[in-house]
Amino acid sequence: MTSSQFPIPFVVGLALTRTQLDQLAKHHLGDDFPESANGGDIAYALERYWEDNCIDRTILNLNEVPYRFFCVLDVFPSLNGAPPRLGLTKNGLRMHWFSFGEAWNSVKLLSRRWPRDLPEPKWLYPKMHATMKRMEAAKKE
Questions:
Q1: Which residue stretches of 53-89 are H helix?
Q2: Terminal Cα-to-Cα distance of the chain (whole angstroms)
Q3: Which residue ranges make up each domain of the chain?
Q4: For the chain, which residues score pLDDT lower than 50?
């Protein structure tokens, strides 16, 4: 068991198909975004956009079949090592991405620990602590 003094960061995000990732890129980078940019690596292009705009996000590869990309949106704490309970629902997310079309009806919301084989981004713990502050403020309301 992990002590509550040392929360474990769990990244929360969306498991996206290639089509969904393409639509996300067009949303952020524009309809005229050339598919050949960045060697055709749309995930890399999005990450550069987020970095240039000081947005703490990333895209991880999910080694699943069918192949999906994990678009990390936030970081939640776990006090016991189990995935945290989220206040988000799939139906709530659909409302936000209605304009993206039918392809977004199959978006999956995921929560998992940061992959041990990857270096932790500098924003991982600060983002988790910001989430903890939001959760604490919500309890007081």
A1: none
A2: 30
A3: 8-140
A4: 1-3
